[in-house]
Every structure is written in structure tokens, then in C-alpha cells.
Design brief:
The complex is a heterodimer of chains A (544) and B (258).
Chain A lengths: L1 H11 L2 H9 L4 H16 L11 H24 L4 H29 L4 H4 L6 H30 L10 H30 L5 H9 L1 H7 L1 H11 L1 H4 L4 H27 L2 H10 L12 H9 L2 H17 L1 H25 L15 H15 L2 E2 L6 H4 L5 H33 L1 H22 L10 E2 L2 H5 L1 H23 L3 H42 L8
Parallel strand pairs in A: 1-2
Helix pairs in contact in A: 3-7, 4-7, 5-7, 5-8, 5-9, 5-10, 7-8, 8-9, 8-13, 9-17, 15-16, 16-20, 17-18, 18-21, 18-23, 20-21, 20-24, 21-24
Chain B lengths: L3 E12 L2 E12 L3 E5 L6 H8 L7 E6 L2 E3 L3 H7 E4 L11 H11 L4 H14 L15 H13 L5 E5 L7 H16 L3 E5 L3 H7 L2 E6 L2 E7 H8 L4 H9 L5 H12 L1
Parallel strand pairs in B: 3-8, 3-9, 6-7, 7-8
Antiparallel strand pairs in B: 1-2, 1-4, 4-5, 9-10
Classes of the chains: A mainly alpha (544), B alpha/beta (258).
């Protein structure tokens, strides 16, 4: 196996591939120098935020997709789905999932080029640099396409009408879909780099990363829109004309991709410095939060206020946090807000299902993602600040972080909903439901606090976390469905049961929060201790 | 008169809506050491980054050795050595590896590169740390690596942005001697610093930038004479209208007492 890999590597670095690279304006010598550099940096834990360079994260994601697709193909086999529908399902799934992953990865590579600051003054042309940056997208495809399609390709053999070569066709088609997704992502960023001012690129990149989610959510509406347009009615009926139009559309797409790729590579390194300076603007005025004063009084004093203010601002401004959280948030927003908005008048005590039942659980799922992502940040090297803080301040700081999540994510939205729901359901039902929801969401937060592994924004972003978020979302949806079912069938039978359950959950949430805050404080201290030991390792020798 | 190596003509640059350079013009000639002075936020680092090909000017014309920027940035980057203001490095690389990377990117031959790296590490007293990761280096050691990386490919124009930051006294003296020796070899050096007495010692002339505009330039004697001051520091204060530090200091002490 090693001999084969070595032969492949010799071929890739050989004169034939070099000539090909040169034809695309890529300097082969510097290309491989940078590839080796990025590989070495990843091996030594310096570029872990890029999925394509993080072998462990890629393997984890591939196995998760393997399990997910195996389950799906089993379901489709049991229902004896038609071969064409089966094939289309996995082709579309592969394209959409890869588009989601690759857009996020291309965005992280291209609009947050922290390593570009070290290399910007070196004589590297734009094509070489961007080719190196984007090569890891190919690695993502090489892992995720087999992960997603190995089982479905083989399982397809058991469907009616399948031929012996079906697995080969299935895998080839999904690889092509993956490559097309990668090229589209790169071209999209090429156009963004060309037309969006450098300082706005990060925001544009984050918006672009949410496009596949928006597409999935609005698939029905998009289909209806095109059906409404009835494009076919306006086109001449002759097949030659239609084929001609299709060919023209294909050529235009290829041209857009080629031009996008060219835009990406031209003078890229000159934009790096401006890009890394870009980001959500901090207001020029010094604003004093009134809630901050409340937090300082009731949740851990000035260290509590520090935790509250630090985390609330970093959640809005940190690139790595925003990059991973915004797609999740958009997914929840687009997926559930219309549902809640359309059914908010339905009283949960009525003998029919009310979408509002989902409120505490969706809040809990959102908090789960916040807590998982909170320790990681783009400016993690600023963690030294916590190392010099007095140890006793850490407990107060942890309480401040909890206060932020509890007040901003749970209490305020519930208070905003109270008058609205009271008007629709009456004060008793609205008050009881919101008290229940508040208690349940607080319990989720109490449990989620244990998922914050260290002080917020003090660890290098880890691609392995980001790669499992999508499967976790699917798992989260199942958990929400079970919790909503229990709530609907067992709890919301009478106001008395709801009041008793609310009191029990609230007491439980209070006790669990106290224990979780202790665990969170210990986790912060433990991780700071590790960071301190790392900094103190004065002579860290590197082998070879 | 010596050959002109850098032309900076009516260059303007903005970060978003904030204009940080307003039509600045100056030239650098071969073999001279020029100080680039100005208060914090004056535009010194932006000026240097434009010359280094890291930023594209918003308006005006920049050329280095007759090569226009940013169009010929790749060729210009082969001819310049740049020490950035903050020591951003790949922390997981060793000192030796970082220097090798920098030299290879500049196409320095294998044997020449190893010889130069060895000499640089020996001179900077870093030989015993060559295999240690850069994240274990002190600020001064990292600065030495950056200076070494900027010199490895024998550049014609050397851009130094606060090069003495974090260096101990001996290393700082050595760098000052090195600057003089490099100038004698015909290298041009643009030296940006806040430390005026160092500029006074090593530079032939100075450019003073204030709020994005070039407000004075000339030999140190010319600057002192034109402002009627007896030292570069007084001339700088007079030109930039900077006040004494005493009121600010007393405000801080008062705040600490309250």
C-alpha cells in the first residue's frame, strides 16, 4: 500500500503534473512547498480549523455519513424504491451536503486567510496560493463521497432493474457531483472576491455558507416559483431550440465557473491583509449594557459582568463562532419560525397539536450548539488574559457566561412572547406555558453548560467539531420530536399537571445549574492549566 | 546621484471610508538608509505594506526598481526583504524550518541557503534553539528570526517596521551595525520606528508622516534647521504638534487613585 501511495506521490510531483500546473499559471515548486507546509502545520496542530487538512475530523465525518447513508439506503430498500428515485436521492443528498461543507470550508480558507499574513510578502503568485488553499477541498471529496455512497452504491444492486455495474455508475456520478460542487464553491468565492469590498468579504462568505440550508428549506417554494413562471410555455416547442438553449446555459455556467476561478487567483495575496482586517464592525461609541449591571449585582460581581460582556460581544464578532453557528441558527430560524408563526394562536391546552410545544426544545437545541462551539475562536491566542486573572474570578466569570445565555436566549424571548400569547390564549394558559417553557429551557441550559469545554473563545477552532454538527442537527430533531410527543401526550393534559411539572423541572434546573456551574468552572481552570503548561514548555523540540 | 530604487508618487490609501494615506510622494535611492517617522496610526505601516506588495494603493503610482506595483508585485517581492511590525509566524515550525521556508520561497539555492541560515543563526545566538518550535521563542528571538528571514535572499530594498522591538541591548546594537553595513553594500533601507534616537544614529534622512500626510522630509540636519530645533525629537514634536506627556500621565495616576 505504501509503495502505491509513494508511486502516486512521485507521479503527482513529477514533470507531467508540473507541466499541467504551469498551464494553469501555478508554480509547481512553490505549490508543493506550500502543500508540504500546510500539511506539516496541520500535523503539528496549527491548522486544525480546516476540515480538509484534519485527517481525524475527516474520518469522523466520513463514518458519520457512512452510518447515516447506510440507514437511509436500508429504509429505501425496505420500501422498494424505484432505482431512478434511489439514485437521484443519493445524488442530490451528496451534492447538497458537499455544497454545504465545501462552501463553509472554502469560505474559511479564502476569506479568513490568517496564514496569508505570514506569506503575503513572499513571492507567491495568486494562482499558486489559491490552488494550494483549495487542494484540501479535493481531500474532503475523497473522504466524504465514499462515506456517503459506499453502502448505497452496493445496496442499489438489490433493487429491481439494477445491473452489475450499478455501484460503479453510482460512485462515478456522485464523485462528479462532488467535483462540480467544489468548482461551483470556488467560482462563487471568486466572484465574491472580485465584487465585494475586502472588508465585507467575511460577512459575504458567511451568508454564502448558509445558501445550501436556505435552498433546502425553501425547496418547495423555489419549485412553486418556477412552476408559476412556467418557463416551458415561453420557449419555442422545437426540441432543437430547447437543446440549443440548454447548451447555451451549460456554456454560460462553465464560463461563469472559469471566470470565477480566474478572479479568485488574481492578486489574491494583495487582498489578504485587508480581508483579515475586515469583519463585523464594533460600534465607535462606548455602550454600557443595563443588563450588565444586573448581572454584576446578581451573577458573580465584576467577573460575572466580564463573562457576560466578553461572550456577548465575541459571539457577534468572532469569525470561527459565527461561521459555524450562523448556518445552524438560520436553519432553525427558517425551518421553525414559519411553523411557529402560523400556529402560534393554537393553545397548547387545546386537544390538538400546537407548534408552540417546540419552543423550549428548540431553544435547548440552539443552546446546545452555542455551548459546543463556545470554547473555540479565531483569536484563541488571547487566552493569556485568563491566565493572569485571579483564580477566584473564574467562578464569577462562569456565572456571567451562564447569565448571558439564560437572560438573552431564554428569559427575554419568553418575556417578549408573554403579552402576545396572553392575548391569544388568556393569561393563565400563556403564563403556565411560558413558565413551563422557561423551566424546560433552563434545564437544557443547565445540561448544555457541561458541554463548554474550557473558557469561551480560548481554543483553536477544531474542524472535527464543525463536521459533526449536521448529523447532530438530525439527531437533535429526533430528540425534539420525542420530547414534544411526551409533553403533548402526558403533560399538557391539565393546568395542574403543567404547574406541578414546571415546579419539578424548575427545581431540577436550579440544582443541575449549580452543579454544572461548578463543573464549568473546573473545566475553565483545567483548560487554562493545560494552556499554561503549553506556554511553559520552553524547549519544545521537533523531531527530524 | 545614486540610482532611484523606489518611487512613491501621490499615493493614497483607505481602509473602507477611512483614508489613511493622502497623496504621499517620496523616492528612495540606492544605498541610503531612510527613517520613516510618525505617531501611532500615522500611516507608516500602511506605507511599508504597499511597498511590500501586501496592499494595493487606492490612487497614485508606486514602482520599485522600475517595476510597477501592484502589477509586478511578484518580481518586486523577490527584491525586497520585509520585517513586519508584529512577529506573525507559523508557531509550530522551528526557527530553522521557518528560515528554510522563507529562503525556498525566494528561490535561494540549497547550499547557499543552508550556509546563510547557519551564519544568521550563529550571529543571532540562536544555533542551540534551531530545532525548537517558534512558539517557545521569546519576543526578541522571534524578531531575530524575522530579520534573518528578510535578509536570506539578499534583497536590494529592506523594509524594517519597528525592527528593534523586543531585542536586547546587544542585539539592538548589532542590528544598527548591520544596517550600516548593508547600506555600505548598496542596499536601501526604509526604517520605520518610534525610537527617534535610533533613527538619528542609523538614518541618512527621514520622512515624517502625520495623519496620513507627508509633512516633512530631508536630512536630519535639514529637519532640525527648518523647525529651529536642536534635536530630531524636538523637531518631530514641533512638526506633529505633539504635547508633552505630563497631563496624560497625571490623569492616569489620578484614575488609579480614585
Amino acid at each position: 500500500m505504501n509503495a502505491i501511495l509513494q508511486a502516486v506521490e512521485r507521479f503527482l510531483r513529477g514533470p507531467r503534473v508540473s507541466r499541467l500546473l504551469v498551464r494553469f499559471g501555478i508554480d509547481p515548486e512553490r505549490y508543493w512547498l506550500l502543500m508540504d507546509l500546510f500539511h506539516e502545520l496541520s500535523e503539528r496542530g496549527e491548522m486544525l480549523d480546516q476540515l480538509g487538512r484534519n485527517g481525524v475530523a475527516l474520518e469522523t465525518a466520513a463514518w458519520l455519513y457512512f452510518g447515516l447513508s447506510a440507514f437511509m439506503s436500508l429504509m429505501l430498500l425496505v420500501t422498494q424504491t424505484a432505482l431512478a428515485a434511489y439514485f437521484a436521492t443519493f445524488l442530490i443528498l451528496t451534492a447538497v451536503l458537499l455544497l454545504a461543507v465545501l462552501l463553509s470550508e472554502a469560505g474559511n480558507s479564502l476569506v479568513n486567510p490568517v496564514e496569508g499574513l505570514v506569506l503575503a510578502h513572499q513571492p507567491i503568485n495568486g494562482a499558486t496560493y489559491t490552488a494550494t488553499k483549495l487542494s484540501h477541498l479535493l481531500r474532503i471529496i475523497l473522504y466524504l463521497v465514499p462515506g456517503l455512497n459506499a453502502v448505497p452504491a452496493l445496496a442499489g444492486l438489490f433493487l429491481k432493474g439494477s445491473a452489475w455495474y450499478y455501484p460503479l455508475v453510482h460512485l462515478a456520478a456522485t464523485f462528479v457531483a462532488g467535483l462540480a460542487a467544489a468548482l461551483l464553491c470556488c467560482a462563487l468565492f471568486g466572484w465574491l472576491v472580485r465584487f465585494i469590498p475586502a472588508r465585507r468579504l467575511k460577512a459575504a462568505g458567511q451568508f454564502a455558507s448558509t445558501l445550501p440550508f436556505l435552498g433546502m428549506m425553501w425547496l418547495q417554494q423555489i419549485r412553486q416559483f418556477f412552476a408559476h413562471l412556467a418557463v416551458g410555455k415561453w420557449l419555442p416547442a422545437g426540441p432543437a431550440v430547447r437543446w440549443g438553449l440548454a447548451a447555451a446555459l451549460g456554456v454560460a455556467t462553465v464560463a461563469a465557473v472559469v471566470l470565477g476561478l480566474r478572479s479568485l487567483s488574481a492578486d489574491y495575496l494583495i487582498r489578504v491583509s485587508s480581508m483579515t482586517r475586515g469583519g463585523p464592525a464594533a460600534g465607535s461609541n462606548v455602550r454600557t449594557s443595563r443588563i450588565g449591571a444586573v448581572v454584576s449585582r446578581f451573577f458573580g460581581g465584576q467577573p460575572g459582568r466580564a463573562g457576560f460582556a466578553f461572550v456577548s460581544r465575541m459571539m457577534l464578532r468572532d469569525w470561527q463562532f459565527r461561521r459555524q453557528f450562523i448556518p445552524m441558527f438560520v436553519y432553525v430560524l427558517i425551518g421553525l419560525v414559519p411553523l411557529l408563526a402560523s400556529g402560534w394562536r393554537t393553545d397548547p391546552f387545546a386537544r390538538k397539536f400546537a407548534p408552540m410545544h417546540m419552543l423550549p426544545h428548540v431553544t435547548g437545541i440552539l443552546l446546545f450548539f452555542v455551548c459546543i462551539l463556545l470554547p473555540y475562536g479565531g483569536d484563541y491566542k488571547g487566552s493569556w488574559l485568563f491566565l493572569v486573572a485571579p483564580s477566584r474570578a473564574i467562578g464569577g466569570f462562569a456565572r456571567g457566561v451562564h447569565a448571558l445565555l439564560w437572560i438573552d436566549v431564554i428569559v427575554i424571548p419568553h418575556l417578549v412572547l408573554l403579552p402576545l400569547l396572553a392575548w391569544a390564549w388568556g393569561i393563565l394558559h400563556a403564563g403556565l406555558f411560558l413558565a413551563y417553557s422557561l423551566a424546560a429551557a433552563s434545564m437544557y441550559l443547565a445540561l448544555d453548560l457541561r458541554r463548554i469545554d474550557g473558557a469561551p473563545f480560548t481554543r483553536q477552532a477544531d474542524a472535527s467539531r464543525g463536521s459533526v454538527l449536521l448529523p447532530l442537527m438530525i439527531l437533535g430533531a429526533i430528540v425534539v420530536a420525542i420530547a414534544v410527543g411526551i409533553q403533548y401526550f402526558l403533560v399538557f393534559r391539565s393546568p395542574a399537571i403543567v404547574a406541578a411539572t414546571t415546579a419539578a423541572i424548575a427545581t431540577g434546573a436550579f440544582l443541575v445549574t449549580r452543579a454544572s456551574l461548578g463543573a464549568f468552572t473546573i473545566s475553565i481552570r483545567y483548560n487554562l492549566g493545560l494552556a499554561s503548561a503549553e506556554v511553559g514548555a520552553l524547549f519544545k523540540e521537533v523531531d527530524g | 546621484m545614486a540610482e532611484t530604487i523606489l518611487e512613491f508618487e501621490k499615493v493614497a490609501f483607505s481602509y473602507g471610508h477611512v483614508e489613511v494615506l493622502h497623496e504621499i510622494s517620496f523616492t528612495l535611492r540606492k544605498g541610503e538608509v531612510v527613517g520613516l517617522l510618525g505617531p501611532n496610526g500615522a500611516g507608516k505601516s500602511t506605507t511599508i505594506k504597499i511597498i511590500a506588495g501586501i496592499l494595493a494603493p487606492g490612487a497614485g503610482r508606486v514602482s520599485c526598481a522600475g517595476l510597477a506595483l501592484p502589477e509586478r508585485a511578484l518580481d518586486v517581492k523577490q527584491r525586497i526583504g520585509y520585517v513586519p511590525e508584529s512577529a506573525i509566524l507559523f508557531d509550530s515550525l522551528t526557527g530553522q524550518e521557518f528560515l528554510e521556508l522563507s529562503g525556498r520561497l525566494h528561490d535561494v539555492g540549497k547550499d547557499t541557503l543552508q550556509t546563510r541560515i547557519r551564519k544568521i543563526l550563529e550571529t543571532f545566538d540562536l544555533s542551540s534553539d534551531r530545532s525548537s518550535r517558534l512558539d517557545t521563542y521569546s519576543k526578541g528571538m522571534r524578531q531575530k528570526i524575522l530579520i534573518g528571514a528578510a535578509l536570506l535572499h539578499n534583497p536590494d530594498l529592506i523594509l524594517l517596521d519597528e525592527p528593534l522591538s523586543g531585542l536586547d541591548v546587544n542585539a539592538a546594537i548589532m542590528i544598527k551595525d548591520l544596517i550600516a553595513a548593508l547600506a555600505a553594500e548598496g542596499k536601501t533601507i526604509l526604517y520605520s520606528s518610534h525610537v527617534l534616537d535610533v533613527v538619528e544614529k542609523v538614518c541618512d534622512r527621514a520622512l515624517i508622516i502625520h495623519k496620513g500626510s507627508l509633512i516633512a522630509h530631508g536630512t536630519l540636519e535639514d529637519l532640525e534647521a527648518s523647525t529651529g530645533q536642536s534635536s530630531l525629537e524636538d523637531a518631530f514634536r514641533s512638526l506633529t504638534g505633539s504635547k508633552g506627556v505630563d497631563p496624560g500621565v497625571s490623569r492616569i495616576v489620578e484614575a488609579l487613585r480614585s
